[in-house]
Amino acid sequence: MNKPPVTQTPGRKEQVRTMFDSIAHRYDFLNHFLSMGIDRSWEKKLVKILISQKPAHILDLATGTADLAIAAVKAKPVSITGTDISEAMLEIGREKVKNLGLDKLITLQQADSENLPFESNRFDAAMVAYGVRNYENLPKGLAEMNRVLKPGACALILEFSRPETFPVKQLFAFYFRFILPLIGRMVSKHSSAYTYLPESVKVFPQGKEFTEIMQKAGFSRVEARKLSFGITMLYTGYKD
Fold first, then answer.
1. Do residues 129 and 62 touch, judged by C-beta distance below 8 A?
2. What is the domain count for the chain?
3. Is 105 inside a domain boundary?
4. Domain of 46: which CATH number?
5. For the whole model, what pTM was predicted?
6. Quick one: how many helices (H) and strands (E) in the chain?
7. What's the CA gap between 236 and 58, in Å, rounded?
8. Mean pLDDT in runs of 10 for the chain (240 residues)?
9. 153 with 125: CB under 8 angstroms?
10. Strand extents, DSSP E, 68-146
11. Contact 161, 232 (CB under 8 A)
């Protein structure tokens, strides 16, 4: 008797790639709308630290549509390299970069953050905005980030977290659980992308737990800064 073919469930990495390919056309609008524009202020805080590092070559991991890469131009680097696993997101990013006349400065390429196609000790700074939460293997992804940085270089990571003080904790939980998925689903036409967001934030390590993972990946002088009452965290660390 013939056995039915085994259907393999796609891994987390492929699920994330497919999801972002599907919502790429509405990603920028929803990002700014659902955060009520506050995400711009979070980026500015990261870029302010980046500027102080005076990096010549910057790596922007999980660059998406290149918002953070474009913001990083203020640091006046020689080059900015953005990577992402979603080609659809990168296509939109390339168009934005070209329209701003930054295509000589910013290069976007498809790559897996856990297996970067770069030699060791190449970049003066690396940054990620809301991307490490999507890594299939978080320690491996952070270790890869460390590998491609030059000694003394800085890593800057923005990631959502869960506020712990009243009433922000309760308001944030309600918004993330009910309002955000509803609006996201209506606008993006994707049934699960904006349900995935609150679910992934709920289980992601934050604060001290995340800084300890960074330290194990090879980073020192690791710090975690709360932004907007803890809605977002800005993590920084340096390669020894």
1. yes
2. 1
3. yes
4. 3.40.50.150
5. 0.87
6. 9, 7
7. 15
8. 40 83 74 72 96 98 96 98 96 97 98 97 97 94 98 96 86 78 69 70 92 98 95 96
9. yes
10. 79-84, 106-110, 123-129
11. yes
